[in-house]
Amino acid sequence: MNLDDIELDEEEMEAMEKCGYSTEEALAFKGVYSHYDNNFGKGDGCCSVPLVKSMVRALGIQMKKKDEETLAVLLEECDENKDGSTQFPEFLLLIKKMQEINFCQMNEAAAERVESEKKAIERKEKAEQRKKKEKEAHRASLVAMEEDKAAIEAVAKEAEAKKKAKGDDDDSDEEGGGLKEYDPKTDGPYQFFYWKNHKAQMDGMQAVWDDYKKKVKAR
């Protein structure tokens, strides 16, 4: 069974705490239990006595005939609902009782297997935490990009508004009249009308005025 699929329900968590096992240890035991239940049992979470004996052996526990008799007694004690089968919480209780009476000692290979599954679970948890952090960083990056985009759009709108306002002012100046051209047939002083705030236009009008004064002096 894939370790990613192994989870503990509320009843199993309660049994884990009752037996004094850590979450990693309980998940490692459930990995063995689920493997035998799904591949050699009915897959319904109710394992027969012979199947439980196979699980015990899978944990590296070598039993003699008298040990099997003791195991049968322990199984009966751990069968809390008295249905003749062993659910995972009862399996945890069985392992705990076996350890308490020094019924068995797991061999080195079994200990390595449990440790290996514990490390695999730890790696999975770290990978999930890393993915979570990456998602949070990506989400923050997207938010920052949206904020930058909004700021750029706001600046662009402001610039467009200023440009439009300037264009309206220019149109108003043109509609109000500009510089009247010099008419040599007209006597008397010549009036100039200046466009406000347009230096280039004012410079041009100044040149026309200077030219006019020269013509007056030349008369």
Describe this structure in words.
With 219 residues, the protein is mainly α. The chain has 2 domains: 3-126, Orthogonal Bundle (Recoverin, domain 1); 173-217, no CATH class. Helices cover 69% and strands 0% of the residues. It has 7 helices and no strands. It has helices spanning 10-19, 23-39, 49-58, 65-78, 88-100, 108-175, 199-217. α2 packs across α3 (49-58), α2 crosses α6 and α4 packs across α5 (88-100). The N and C termini lie far apart (114 Å).
| Amount of beta strand | under 5%
Task: Could you tell me the CATH topology label of the largest domain.
Answer: Recoverin, domain 1
CATH class identity of the largest domain:
Mainly Alpha
Strand/helix succession: HHHHHHH
How many domain regions? 2
Number of DSSP strands?
Answer: 0
Distance between the termini: 114 Å
CATH superfamily of the largest domain: EF-hand
Largest sheet: none
CATH architecture field of the largest domain: Orthogonal Bundle
Distinct helical segment count: 7
Task: Give me the secondary-structure category.
Answer: mainly alpha
What would you call the shape?
Answer: rod-shaped
Q: Considering DSSP H and I runs of 4 or more, what fraction of the residues is helical?
A: 55-70%
- The Cα radius of gyration reads 46 Å
User: Mean of the pLDDT scores?
Assistant: 72
Q: pLDDT below 50 for ≥5 consecutive residues: which ranges?
A: 175-182, 187-198
